[in-house]
């Protein structure tokens, strides 16, 4: 177990937050007792509607955690059931109990497993200890959500966030979004894996990767846990390169495991490492970004860009995204749902570009059908690499729903 | 007298149990949309003679107490006020407190709406000066009424219903006290200028015409004539000058803010897309939107879509804000027909732009008008605290039964061509779509669309709207499916809070019949959610 601030010898534990400005969370104060069964003190915004349901859930969770005698006091700000379970378990664990047993809510049905090369234009960051953002995140239509255990979570809350994310992976329907988790830097990240991997995340982001060995540690840990817990769905990896050394080792990192589906860059840390300012133009990180693109393509995987930090500046985001696509990136991060649609627009092909590609693809298919080795459009012969680029572009446009996919009746996004 | 004001109870056409008598008068039960007709002549004020008024037109009186005395203030009178100064109002409370100090008892307060600044009226009810309130109650006043402390039954009416009640003679206003941001000594008054400028004074128009006595209170007396005037001096008995009628910072907001909540933005965008994709957004169309966070964001999204499609609206009814004013100035809308003016930009606009026009509940909402604007609107976007699977909606009480909001123009706006409720699918953990609403404020047959962040439900009565958006990629879903999905997230159906079998207020329909009853609440829940429909 990691060092946790609130463990005490008297077997008390607290977790979560309550207060006038808190919504969809709760504060749990737990104290083990020697006898007397479970005593529950509950003050809830939704007492009139769900008071009895909450009390029943508290008893169920404690029973599953193996707690028979305790005083548990809850101030609830309208938290959903998976949050209540996560906070109770965090408080019980902080009391030094329930190290093994897991109190899990019913699992939701998951979308189909992730393909290695699925669309990853937008990935929406969700702070791992802020439950109120979880439940509707998938509605905004990101290609992926990232439940973040790293920079958005205070060090003292790492353990609680880890539990909350575990419960969210199990109980929250993120729709068609790929379920990603950003773990902490190693070695703390290995502890995260113990809770996260059994819930079949689709992809794990590993922060501050500098060497291939670091990825090996993660791959090894995932293999062991996945085997122990019979996780059958694929778990992809996306190393985040955020230092000069990481950038230098980009290709070695990308090729160290076939679990790696993409590599990405973290510009805040990278520019800090260089000791330079991060600018809107991004000239200070041009080399690093190009290096990531090249390494990713050399390793036959996606290159994914960093985030654009100014939520209010939608124009700036669009320009950044368009430039990013032009460089060879296939997506970037979002820190607010309003960025999703703009990013999808930025990473969509230009209409004239698409029109041309469609003509080339049609000519190519025609040539294939007629058994011709040479593709020509009008009087012009089309070079093979041009055909390849057009095929890639049309395939991506189909995934984005911009071009009707002949093989499915998918609704445009 | 206790709340023994509601004698028998019968079941009305909405299937709700309602009192047969309200505050000693017989009251007709709701009979269905457009099923009730009042007959006879409209109520009328007493005949006055100009020879009884100063020939030089100067109707100034040194203070409000003198004016009230000259109006013949006595026990049991009905005193009316208006909410155009919103939470910054100082006039209503001063009028009631002055009347109380003069020894008046058992007054009926008839505000067009009450605000948290009116909380001290509770003390006047406790002391016996005020008997009960006929008007919207929320915050502390709502709690006082919800807990059964008010001696009479509360009567909640829409803005249009307030005008109807006056014309029906259901409410007889003895003294109307009108707060005026600008007035002359003759009593002409207007809201678009002055240190307490608030925009339209439309809520006070009925009172100025029908009350026995009319007092105008102003902190900005200008030389005759006050131009423009919305209140005609010819209807005014007395003019009282005071230092301040209100707190300008609470009257209008400096800037109205669009919501930043991702979920609310999504709802707003879905509503705008619905109007575009259904073809309601077309050249010359009209819509109504308020000043809540969702409504503002909706206007913003719609404006972008109008620009892109090169479509212009003929007129917009509001709830005017900077956002509507910007559209007016950009030529995207022809006129703002303004019912209430919410921010400084809108106040400046109504004062200077001839296409930004002050309207009133008479032009827009009154059931006894020879038509009204509300039914001429193509689409209205409204909020609600709850909506049921039959599209009946609640806007006055929270799910726990406490009074939470006034009806405002909400009921009247239901007559728009397409009525859209834009609501989150749950607040805190409490589902918004329920089996049966706590208080029916609007009948489901008038509510066409429920738009939530999880999808849009179309009322099965509106097959035309289903057809209009078919294949357009909108997330159209049965309302029962949205309900089931949210109940799964929230951990089952919420329990129904127990309410006492004792009416504390009634909800009137636009025609004056009783649509539903508000019952006394049992539980004090100090952790009650902070819900606002406007948000």
Write the layout of secondary structure elements.
The complex is a heterodimer of chains A (413) and B (535).
Chain A: E1 12-16, E2 26-32, E3 38-44, H1 47-64, E4 70-76, H2 81-94, E5 122-127, E6 144-148, H3 158-171, E7 178-182, H4 188-196, E8 203-206, H5 212-228, E9 236-241, H6 244-248, H7 250-254, E10 262-265, H8 267-274, H9 286-298, E11 302-304, H10 314-327, E12 332-334, H11 338-346, H12 351-369, E13 375-377, E14 380-382, H13 384-399
Parallel strand pairs in A: 3-4, 5-6, 5-12, 6-7, 7-8, 8-9, 9-10, 10-11
Antiparallel strand pairs in A: 1-2, 2-4, 13-14
Chain B: E1 9-11, E2 17-19, E3 21-22, E4 25-26, E5 60-61, H1 64-70, E6 78-81, H2 91-101, E7 107-111, H3 121-127, E8 130-133, H4 139-146, E9 154-156, H5 159-167, E10 175-180, E11 182-183, E12 189-190, H6 205-210, E13 213-218, E14 238-241, H7 248-251, H8 262-277, E15 285-289, H9 293-309, E16 313-320, H10 322-329, E17 333-341, H11 344-352, E18 356-358, H12 361-364, E19 379-382, E20 386-388, E21 393-394, H13 410-413, E22 418-422, E23 426-427, E24 430-431, E25 433-434, E26 449-452, E27 455-458, H14 463-469, H15 479-490, E28 499-508, E29 514-521
Parallel strand pairs in B: 5-14, 6-7, 6-10, 7-8, 9-28, 10-13, 13-14, 15-16, 15-19, 16-17, 17-18, 19-22, 20-25, 22-26
Antiparallel strand pairs in B: 1-2, 3-4, 11-12, 20-21, 23-24, 26-27, 28-29
Note the main attributes of this structure.
heterodimer; A: 413 residues; alpha/beta; Ribosomal Protein S5, domain 2; TIM Barrel; eight-stranded parallel sheet; four-stranded mixed sheet; 13 helices; 39% helix; 16% strand; disordered C terminus; B: 535 residues; Glutaconate Coenzyme A-transferase; 2 domains; eight-stranded mixed sheet; seven-stranded parallel sheet; 15 helices; 24% helix; 22% strand
